[in-house]
Amino acid sequence: KKKEKKNAAFKKTKLKVGKILKKTNTTDSTIESRKVVLITQLEEQSGSSTAVYSYRGLSLENLCSQLGHYSKNVRKNAIVGAKQILTSAPNLIEAHLRTIIPAFARLISLTDTDAATHSQLKSLLELVCTVPPMSMSPHFPLFVAHILRGLTHSHDSVRSFALTVIHLLLDTYPSLCRDSTDIFQTIVHFLAANRKTNHSTRVLLDFVASFLRIYDEDAAVASHCVEVRLRAEEGVLSHAIDLCPPSLNLDPFHFPVLTTSSAGASSSLFTSPETLLNLVQALSPLVARVALENDRNLGEHIVRVLALMRRGVDRQPNKFMLADFEERYVKACDPIVKATKVHSLKENKKVFAAISELLSSPV
Amino acid sequence: SCCRNNNLHYRITKHRHPFKMSVAALPQASGKINKFAMTERHLGFLQEMVRKHPESYKEEFLEQYEHFMQTIKLLHLQPVQHRMDVQPLLDSVTFLSGVVVFYAAEAKAFGDQMLTVLREQSTGLDPHVRMAFCKALIPLRNKNYIEPLTLLELFFELVKLEDKHLRKFILSSISSHLKVICVQKKNLKLAGKIQNFCYAKLKDSRSIVVRCAQLILIDAFRKKYFRDTKTANAISEGCFHKIPKIQVAAMKFFIGSKADEDGEEELSDDEEGGGEEEGKTLKEVMNAFRYAKKTKKREKDLEKAKKAISKKKKAKKESRSKECNLLAVQSMYDPQEFGDRLFKMLESTKVEKFEVRLFRLALLARIIGIHRLQTLQFYSWSTFPRRYVQRYLQPKQRDVTRILLYAAQACHELVPPDTVENLVRCIAYNFVTDRNSPEAITVGINAIREILNNCPFAATEELLRDLAEYKTYKNKNVSMAARALITLFRQVNPKLLHKRDRGRLTAEQTEGEDREYLDFGVPAVREFVPGAECLPEEREENGEMEIDEEEVEKSDDEDGWVNVHHGADVSEDEEGEGEEDEDEDDEDEEGEWETDDEEGAEEEEDDDDEEEDGEDEEESGEEEEEEEDEEGEKKVESKAPTQSKKLKRRVTKAEMKAEIAHVPKEKAVKVSEGRILTQEEFKKINQFQIKKALVSQKKIAREIVGTRKRTNDDDKLDEEYEEKRQRRVEGDGLPRLRDIEHFHKKMRRATKEERMESIMEGREGREDYGKRKKNGPHVGKTNRENAKKKVFSMVKNKIRGKNRQRSFRDQQTSLKNYLLRQAGHKPGN
Questions:
Q1: Using CB atoms within 10 A of its CB, is residue B157 exposed (0-12), middle (13-18) or buried (19+)?
Q2: Band of pLDDT at residue B575, cut at 50, 70 and 90
Q3: Which backbone phi and psi does A238 adopt, to 5 degrees?
């Protein structure tokens, strides 16, 4: 027995067939205990709590990619889903504007969209437009470019819908719209070309009114005047000129770039009298036509538009720059003048008064 | 709204042409469809209409145009468009580009907008949109709404993008523009501007721009738009660009096609194959097929014709590049400097691909060969033992035949003989040894032959005689190569050969006409126009002139001693035959030479010389007699042999030679000194020279070599030599790979696998044997089934029973048989 003990270290283990020897150089990690106690619950990952899914379990990214789907129905469902997500979590809109705007705005100029989808899309865009102008401003040019592209589209329905959307923008972001040259030019062009849309005249007039109104506000006209005296012999100014006066109500990062296309383009109603004339020329056939129709319901609208036009003319400060301004103004108003000679118009006193107000000498 | 509609309609109809009015009038009736219904969906249709009457469709055009402008604005903000929006954009671009040229102001703005977008957003745009814009710009440029150079600049900007199709398009469009400018409009000022622009772009830092400019210039040079020395030299700078691909393109331009280098001639077999479809274009052939009944044979013919036409086109292209690369090499400003720079690059130890190095070697060799440069290190570079010989002039070396070819091309008359001698020796040591394979020996001997052909003064007697020994080598390729070398030296410098190999001197040799150089660096100065002796001394009438010529020859030919030697000849001839048995030509040849060698060893040099000569003369004498019997009239032929005979007869050869050559030479001198030759006279001289060459060839053909008759191989060698001599005069006169890799006998048989492969290749596209697969409309149906589908009136007369008028007798018998059968009798009695 003693001998056996002595030889224990050198004993050769007998291998049985099918049995695997334990390895000597590994650590055995099996646990033997009665129960496992968890100190804290497994934490959820931080991101998942904020993610919002639509009823169908799609995230906003998914929906945005589905908005580009070839199938009409998939697109429609995606619009509904997006609307649902954004209503449930309005804070998402502002954070995701960068992806939302191109995805949504692209849909405006699709030709195969039906009326129901259009209305869904419209309410979706209305939702997007709840964002404050400050956060909208970086994405605004892209948004506008999409809409204006729709406005020049050859399809009626697309054009009409684009008009609705731009109307929405004019109402929601007047200050941003005012800074965009493209909007002014394209809309004047649109009105001048007399392009047909599905909208009634009344909607059109409303649109024109709100278009004119954005240039009507005081902020638009507010020009910063500084009086400086230059003493020629000394070559010194009386006092320093502050080219960027601190504005009270505007945000400090607001530097409107008035021209995006070509250098000499007119940006808005108030940059030059030329643009004013263009506008009047574009509007007068429309106004004249509506006035001739002599619809009771439209009377109010047309008076409003006429008043706005008049105010625009009054506020234009640089009329003196054009020598023949008066002449051209009358020429631009020619369709309206013709309309006044029709007998039926004279009965509608309010409208007639507004027109005569407009036609009275601007200078 | 109604009022507005009226208003609209009024505006439309105001100035419309009648057709348009009818289009516009329709919607009024149907109410809801407006006037744009037709056009807004069919841009193609609208395009047609606008083309016909641009003024009246301006409104529709403007609608599309404004939409496009808005899209451009969008593209500035967001160049990447959704894939669904791409197609409409492409459509509108194609529409506008087709139509916009009718409206000048819009065209300008349209072009400018696209230019700016392409410039600013080139990377972001969808490749298709980018391509469409580029394509749309082309018609605008053609109508001069855009400056050609502005567009060219833009194109060179766009080339930087990684867009293969766009690059291809740009290159092709520039090429076609050049064609218009240079060929159709001949606007050389603009062409020059573009040329200078391309030169400037060759120095750009971006390699892709350089490559693009290079490709344009090469293409323009090949197509003759810019075929001048300036372009060639601008391209030549590309050989030293840091990017190997540009180097290779430039070098390839100068080297030309590989087929040319290999010396293959594609045109010849093509001309045979073309046959009937010679004059037809592909379009004609296709049209003829389209309107003819389609049969299998016609289909096959069409395929054949197509193949032939494409082949022809390819060959045409090839030949064009062939002529132009020589021109390009010749028009280099400073070939010596260029060659030195190239050699420096070759010498540099920079690691580069073997192919590139080979190209460089090829170009260098070609330039040296064509311009006769003195780049002496080149020869030692490839032979100098420590550095490159181990690698380059070894039979195991990759593409060694090409390297040998380049060595041969680089050798010209003005290379010092000792330099070339080293080169030749090196090749001989490495290739022409018994331990090498026969192929290696053949290639080596061929290369040496080509080198020595270019610089004959580099040959040494000892080396040449060693090489000549290979004419008895058991492999036919080797022996033929050696014999070709001997044939060459018989013409060029027979003195170096062993006496038995020398053959007989030809007339030209005695006159020394065909030699350009008498010794190294000693050009043969001619005192007269060769062949001028055919003209009369004084200008006379044509008829007399010829008579005069013949008279001269006749007087020359007075030789009564031809017969005398005939007798002596026979005895010696018998001796020769007694020594050897003559079973086969080849063996005979070998045997003879062996014995000759032994003789040479035994006897002294001089004796041997005389004996050999004697043998030769006698044979020729025999030959001569036969000739005279056959063609007594043609005295001209006999002139040359007579001369050579005389030459060998005398001990002092040189004196004799002078005397013989004296008469015609003197006359030639007189003729060419006495007056200015006219064009007609030159023509006559040419004819005379050709005639003389033919005669001497014929004479050689009849000649007996040694004691045996001429074999086909001898003819072949002579023909080849003649051909080679012709080729040296025309083109660049450089040897070709075919000369180096010339194997008279096929190298080896193809294995069974290879044969089967080629058989299978031949079977490709052929129908299998056996039953043809049928798939016509009536296949697999019986006539009865088919009849069921026919109109009744067609088959009415074929109804069974009605169409058979049985005779009364037939009816009777069949009735009888029937009744009998019914009664239980057996039928058929």
A1: middle
A2: very low
A3: -65, -40
For A230, the enclosing helix (H) or strand (E) is strand A230-231
Report residue B71's pLDDT band, with 50, 70 and 90 as the boundaries: very high
Report pLDDT digits (tens) over B768-787.
777 777 788 888 888 878 87
Query: For residues A121, A127, A132 and A133, what is the CA-based torsion angle, rounded to 10 degrees?
Result: 10
Nearest to A268 by CA among A169, A183, A173: A183
Q: What is the pLDDT of residues B745-771, one digit of tens each?
A: 765 677 888 889 988 888 887 777 777
Counting every residue written for chain B, the total comes to 829
Instruction: Residue B63: list chain A partners with CB under 8 A.
Output: 152, 154, 193, 195
Nearest to A94 by CA among A62, A60, A128: A128
Among residues B536, B556, B540, B719, which one has the least CA distance to residue B636?
Answer: B556
How far apart (Å, rounded) are the C-alpha atoms in residues A62 and A48? 15
Query: How many Å lie between the alpha carbon of B74 and the closest alpha carbon of chain A?
Result: 5
Distance from CA of A220 to the nearest CA of B (A): 25
Min CA distance, B36 vs chain A (Å)? 8
Contact: A153, B78; criterion CB under 8 Å: no
- The answer to whether the CB atoms of B67 and A149 lie below 8 A apart is yes
Say how many C-beta atoms besides its own lie within 10 A of residue A77's C-beta.
19
* pTM score: 0.68
The answer to whether A153 contacts chain B (CB < 8 Å) is: yes
Compute the distance between CA of residue A158 and CA of residue A146 in angstroms, rounded to an integer.
12
Residues of B in contact with A193 (CB under 8 A): 62-63
For residue B60, with 0-12 CB atoms within 10 Å meaning exposed, 13-18 middle and 19 or more buried, which class applies?
A: buried
- Residue range B141-180, pLDDT digits in tens: 999 899 999 999 999 999 999 999 999 999 999 999 999 9
Helix axes B58-77, B104-120, angle to 10 degrees: 20
CA distances from B342 to A65, A171, B247, B249, B366 (A): 58, 74, 11, 15, 12
Structure tokens at B630: 């056959």
Least CB-CB distance to B36: which of A154, A201, A289? A154
Residue A201 is nearest to which of B1, B64, B82, comparing CB atoms?
Answer: B1
Confidence (pLDDT) at B782: 86
Nearest to B74 among A145, A194, A195 (CB): A145
pLDDT digits (tens, 9 = 90+) for B363-403: 999 999 999 998 888 887 655 544 454 467 888 888 889 99
A293 touches chain B (CB under 8 A): yes
Among B238, B162, B172, B171, which Cα is nearest to B204's? B238
CB–CB of B8 and A196 under 8 A?
yes
Give the residue among B476, B486, B374 at the shortest CA–CA distance from B420.
Answer: B374
Q: Which residue of B has its CA nearest to A149?
A: B70
Of A145, A193, A293, the CB nearest to B3: A293
**Which of B65, B77, B113 to mutate against chain A (most A CBs within 10 Å)?**
B77
pLDDT (mean) for A297-324? 78
In Å, what is the CA distance from B577 to each residue of A89, B307, B573?
119, 58, 6
> How far is A86 from B386, CA to CA, in rounded Å?
82
What is the rounded CA–CA span in Å between residue A305 and residue A212?
8
Interchain CB distance below 8 Å, A145 and B36: no
Q: Does the predicted interface ipTM exceed a cut of 0.95?
A: no
